[in-house]
Amino acid sequence: MKRAGVAILGLGVVGGGTYQILTEKREYFKKTQGVDLTVECVLEKNVERARELGVEEDKIANSIEEVVSNPNVDIVVEVIGGTGVAKTFVTKALMSGKTVVTSNKELFAKHWPELEAQAKKMHAGLFFEASCVGGVPIIRTLQEGMQANKILSIKGIINGTTNYILTKMANEGSSYEEALKEAQRLGYAEFNPTADVEGFDATYKLSILSSLAFNKKICIENVYREGITGVDKEDIAYGKEMGYTLKLLGIGKDTEKGVEVRVHPTFVKNDNPLASVNDSFNAVHLVGDAVGEIMLYGRGAGALPTGSAIVSDVIFAAKHDQYFYANFKNNQQGNKETKFVKDFVSKYYIRLSVMDKAGVLSKIAGVFSKNNVSISEVKQVSYEDGKAQIIIITHECGESLVKKTLDKLQSLDEVYGVKGTIRMED
Amino acid sequence: MKRAGVAILGLGVVGGGTYQILTEKREYFKKTQGVDLTVECVLEKNVERARELGVEEDKIANSIEEVVSNPNVDIVVEVIGGTGVAKTFVTKALMSGKTVVTSNKELFAKHWPELEAQAKKMHAGLFFEASCVGGVPIIRTLQEGMQANKILSIKGIINGTTNYILTKMANEGSSYEEALKEAQRLGYAEFNPTADVEGFDATYKLSILSSLAFNKKICIENVYREGITGVDKEDIAYGKEMGYTLKLLGIGKDTEKGVEVRVHPTFVKNDNPLASVNDSFNAVHLVGDAVGEIMLYGRGAGALPTGSAIVSDVIFAAKHDQYFYANFKNNQQGNKETKFVKDFVSKYYIRLSVMDKAGVLSKIAGVFSKNNVSISEVKQVSYEDGKAQIIIITHECGESLVKKTLDKLQSLDEVYGVKGTIRMED
């Protein structure tokens, strides 16, 4: 039977879940996977936490050096997060020839090529299934389930916190602030929610997933990012009436014009399978040139779902001697030859507050037409104090044209303001 | 760069798609996967078909012996189907030490352990991603994406033909016969549709998937099977009104009482992600003890989706020297120690045609109560000529109790007949 000794760096939520799965299921893995996995040591500042989890005293390491010099440790699990000590520790582990399994999306999005170069040099494995979409095996699918395809697009709900907030706003008519507060109360959102609600977390994940999907390093600097803090519950409600659901999507497309990567609130049609992915669930929708549409759905976070991805990586590493390397020819700055699309082509939902008098709609429509933005649908939704709200849904058009149109509209006396602008995907 | 020579046995729809992907994308795979895959030969009775696909004359083999003795062939793709020559050919390929990639669910469901034993003996790979759910990487997910989990249940829409028919019946109110005819016209159903509509195809796939999920060989004889030929469009319509969608599900559960495997028409609640899987799409919903719910969705059939799964297996085989073996300790007849549940516990939808007079409902309810079948919902749906239709939805209960209840009901003068009995899943 194959054996592997595991070290866990960090015993937070995910580290605790990983420790639990590895220790409680040792016999199960021997029987079903033919591998004997033992936790050889843990490294955790908060020694009390280690004791609470039941880690034996002699398995609590004092330093990363103690961990990487331990000959019984084959696989190092890093679940500290961030790019500080986590980067130092992962680097030391790889340089000692240990295989690394990590859930650290920020580290991977920012330093993948250099970590991979170290791993390759030492013939060590480098696994990161847990970095994206928790327990859903999206990384393995991209690496070893869809290789026959050129992947044309990837669209994902890849942040559970924002999906929980947007679901709550849609179902209960809550404001962003109310929904955020509830998410924090339930532990779905951090006390400082910036990484989630401003789309940084999704940006890291999209950078990793689109790099694998398109076979080129997509840096986080290449990803357009817009969070959900500006989302108005009125727009969610109007979209709902018109058959659309608002989601924070990570979108990657590989087209003849170049690669397009962006994270922003997006209206999706209700019959799109992503529209019914609710609460803290995640999903990734892929289109491959051979396989067509595929979607994977599941829990994107949590102790056991993320622990499931980590332990699946540990088992894979313990069973195989050959590892996946992305082999990016380009460095951390990406490949200069990769062209990126900046002027996104999309449909738009636009909500305007306008003067409620004859001729206004015609004047507004004229501005759209003059700027070559073609209108697909118009709806006048409310009247009050001589003001009307108009919702316009455009056909697909370039972002720069929409921007010019909105600038012009805002300069009209008849337009009190542009209240909402949201991109749409079918 | 790693190289692998491929032979394709059978150039039907899937064989043609596989040939197309391998030849058109040779350069793409060299660049993105670091493997050079060449089609070294094909074996196809209909030589004209091979020529139409552009296979060079000297690559059209005359016999399986010619294929397996060809030193340039490393990987043999079998896409003939059935258990006749396909079994002979696969066996010869494995005995010659060639790795086999197959889409043949019937062969695998019926002869997996003996084929695996041959493969292991010769250190050859045996890959079958394409045997279940076409291009959706469900096999790889079970083998290498969810190993950390004890899988508690698997529920899948794993036959595209029947899903197309049921979707059409639901959306257009067609009868089974009308929907089947349309499916045949579009090429979704065969001229002889038995394998699909009677649930044999789904049974093969459920046998394979549940074996992997539960780590024990589940034979097709263990799978309860019921097709869709008896489905009445009235039940679909009544279910719809009550918030349910009818699907042919493959269901596997691994419970303390034993393993439960069954294929039958099933009402699922509209908020179940499986309910919105329409037309010829497939989906598999899994529950793992660590990861919770996961669902994979995509095309279950077709030249390129199935070709995508085959070529992904070919690439995996070309890149790795270590293969997955299920290592069933049991033989083809399964493991005698595996306990199977026969008396399924389920909710039931029951439609009765009854006499339209006072006291009937009370009498019927009495029969349910006497047989310990608890009722959750009752709806009286139509009245005509002194007849009423009653729909009863039960709480969870054992199948044998329901059967006793129905037998008793049918003996009542007030009951003209049991018009529909359909199991339900939340």
Q: Characteristics of this structure?
A:
5-stranded parallel β-sheet, 426 residues, alpha/beta, 15 helices, Alpha-Beta Plaits, 11-stranded mixed β-sheet, 3 domains, homodimer, Dihydrodipicolinate Reductase, domain 2, Rossmann fold, 16 strands
How would you explain this protein's 3D organization?
- Two copies of one chain form a homodimer.
- The first copy, chain A, is an alpha/beta fold and 426 residues long.
- Chain A has three domains: 130 residues, 3-Layer(aba) Sandwich (Rossmann fold); 149 residues, 2-Layer Sandwich (Dihydrodipicolinate Reductase, domain 2); 81 residues, Alpha-Beta Plaits, CATH 3.30.70.260.
- In chain A, strand 4, helix 6 and strand 5 form a beta-alpha-beta unit.
- In chain A, helix 1 crosses helix 13, helix 6 runs parallel beside helix 11 and helix 14 runs antiparallel to helix 15.
- Chain A is elongated, with a radius of gyration of 24 Å.
- Chains A and B meet through helix 2, helix 7, strand 11 and helix 13 of A and helix 2, helix 7, strand 11 and helix 13 of B.
Question: What is this entry, summarized?
Answer:
Two copies of one chain form a homodimer. With 426 residues, chain A is an alpha/beta fold.
